[in-house]
Amino acid sequence: MIMSKSINAIKCNCLRKTLTVAMSVGALAVAMTQTAQANVDCSEKAASNAEAHLMPGAGYWMQSVDINHITYTSVGGISSYLFNLETEKLEPITRGMDAFPIPPGDIYVHPTGGGGYSFYKMGDGETAKPIFNDTDHFGVYQAVGLLPATKGPKDRVVRVSAGWGAGIFQDYHITTLEDGTYDFKRLHSHPVQVCRNLDTGGLDTQIPVLSRNGELIAGRDTNDQMTKIYKITNIHQVDAATDTEVADCEEVQTIPTETSKISFSFDNKKVMFVIADPITGKGRLLEMDIETAKLTTLSMPSEDVMYMTYRADSSLRNDDRLLYSRRTDAVGVESELILIKPNSVAKDDDELARPLEALGHLWGRACGMDLDTDAARAAGSRVNQNQCDELLNAANFASLPAEYSDLQKDQIQTLCKLSERAQKN
After folding, report:
1. Which of 6, 331, 343, 418 is the most buried (most CB within 10 A)?
2. Are strands 192-194 and 244-255 parallel, antiparallel or unpaired?
3. Sign of the Cα pseudo-torsion (381, 253, 341, 109, in order)
4. Closest CA to 65 of 425, 368, 314, 336
5. What kind of architecture, by CATH, is found in domain 43-346?
């Protein structure tokens, strides 16, 4: 057992108090840190299970229309595309920014250049005229959710959110008539202001994304820059003269770092997002279970992921595969669309946690404690960079249990950097 003057520098007592801290920070670091052997396994599995499609332009803001079609926006966000996975060809769609399909995919919505939102029928081509305009709903980065009041594909209640104005949404009752045309009714006099009960006064401008059922909304907390998931509650009027309505938000889950926009699964149980690897700068694709906060890495370490979406089947349930675009050039104007089964590349958190456990065991031995696996993970998640350096310099690295003998010091140091960054956020 190692007992030296380095113990004071490691601050054993301070760390000991944090062993019961929730593992969200550590789990994020674990999800982004893989051993060399795990990288090899991941690449081999992905090579045999992934399906690649060449995409014209860059695949940002991808949305699943149906099992064979996605919409996406290329560089600059000024043009939308409709891509057929089966034929690997583009199909006609109006070219405004950020087309978002409305389930089951027969219509879609664009923000208009002059403000407001315009709705179009899918398949009407590049020069199609809107089937409905809402000049009162404004902003960009819109998302769509199909509310539970929906009775079927011909009788839908649809929520369309936007980031502008610290987060707003409008609800629409959309009825498909016998002649194939559509009747739109706005359900609020003006867009509802969402999450005004938060101490930030609302949501970040660019991030808000609705769940598929429209009842959850994800946004970046402007205080700590972490992405958080909220339940939308208590829509109520605050000004009778202007008929202004607000909706409160209850925090459901936190992703302990800054992320890309997220994508909700069609069962509203999971989310995917991209985070920049602080070591390589590449985009890493992660998935989180909303209830348990369990994180899983989905992309290969060599890939630079740009955007992602879950794929829907004809019944608006999750297909067994998901889609993400990966960069194929240095500036991000060309990309490939990757279709994978998540289980083909996902690694179990227990396996990925080994560097974190090793760090905790180093701390425990230096502090005169023999930690079990859970305690070692908790301790490892709270070690900062200075403490990490002390541990790696002072502790007998070779004295780690045999199951960690393949780990290298630089793997532990990388983990420390990730963990410290997440703690600061």
Report:
1. 418
2. parallel
3. negative
4. 314
5. 6 Propeller (2.120)
